[in-house]
């Protein structure tokens, strides 16, 4: 089980996260939603120790998560990646095996097979020798999903994976998420605009610095909770419309 306890982040006196608590069982796909600046990316980074926290902790399988980074695959937002870096699709996927090989390890036949399987699974094996900067947004997102698959992780964190992708890529991502969930993995996926994709989730965390609501999408995405999360920005930050009428009726 993943357990987040009283996690708080403060940036030079400005609250980034305030005492966030939740837990996730194996085999669950959990979405994190909220307005821009709500702390969704901060939450994922704080869980991994990529930003300093002022309180709280994160345990995975009853041990501190930061001591088990080898069990975690993290895919940041595309805007945080240097797409001009001269690296091929195959080499990016191979990076997911670095912890298993060591920095000076030589990939063997087994490693090459894992990389090929991952890239085939996301539908871009034919692009394996292309540089990542030459790809479309959807293809780039699939590259890093492929890298996450090569890590063979038990906990997968995705930050805004649906931003700027085409419908084909979105369908591929959701299919793989379903497969990973069936394998007993834990998936935590942030997004500022889910739309109909909400129906694929087991649970939803509605966040705006603090945790506004935690439950099924139907339980969380009510008009009252949306107003609490988005306030006067409701309609400007493009949250999913009130779901009682659009998805669940």
Automatic annotation (TrEMBL):
InterPro entries: AAA+_ATPase, ABC_transporter-like_ATP-bd, ABC_transporter-like_CS, Metal_Ion_Import_ABC, P-loop_NTPase. PROSITE patterns: ABC_TRANSPORTER_1 (PS00211), ABC_TRANSPORTER_2 (PS50893). It comes from the Bacteria. Keywords: ATP-binding, Nucleotide-binding, Transport. Residues 2-234 form the ABC transporter domain. Coiled coil: none annotated. One of its GO terms (molecular function) is ATP hydrolysis activity. Belongs to the ABC transporter superfamily. This is Manganese ABC transporter ATP-binding protein. It comes from Neosynechococcus sphagnicola sy1.
């Amino acid at each position: 089980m993943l357990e987040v306890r009283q996690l708080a982040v403060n940036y030079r006196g400005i609250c980034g996260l305030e005492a966030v608590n939740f837990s996730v069982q194996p085999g669950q796909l959990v979405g994190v939603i909220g307005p821009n600046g709500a702390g969704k990316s901060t939450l994922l980074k704080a869980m991994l120790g990529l930003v300093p926290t002022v309180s709280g902790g994160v345990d995975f399988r009853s041990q501190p998560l930061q001591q088990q980074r080898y069990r975690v695959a993290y895919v940041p937002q595309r805007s945080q990646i240097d797409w001009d870096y001269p690296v091929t699709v195959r080499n990016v996927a191979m990076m997911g095996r670095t912890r298993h090989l060591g920095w000076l390890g030589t990939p063997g036949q087994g490693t090459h097979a894992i990389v090929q399987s991952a890239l085939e699974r996301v539908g871009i094996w034919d692009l394996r020798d292309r540089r990542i900067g030459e790809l479309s947004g959807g293809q780039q997102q699939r590259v890093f999903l492929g890298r996450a698959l090569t890590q063979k992780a038990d906990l997968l964190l995705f930050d805004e994976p649906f931003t700027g992708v085409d419908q084909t890529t979105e369908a591929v991502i959701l299919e793989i998420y379903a497969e990973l969930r069936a394998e007993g993995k834990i998936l935590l996926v942030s997004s500022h605009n889910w739309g109909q994709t909400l129906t694929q989730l087991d649970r939803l965390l509605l966040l705006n610095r603090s945790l506004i609501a935690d439950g099924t999408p139907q339980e969380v995405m009510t008009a009252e909770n949306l107003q609490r999360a988005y306030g006067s920005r409701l309609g400007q930050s493009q949250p999913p419309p009130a779901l009682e009428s659009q998805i669940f009726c």
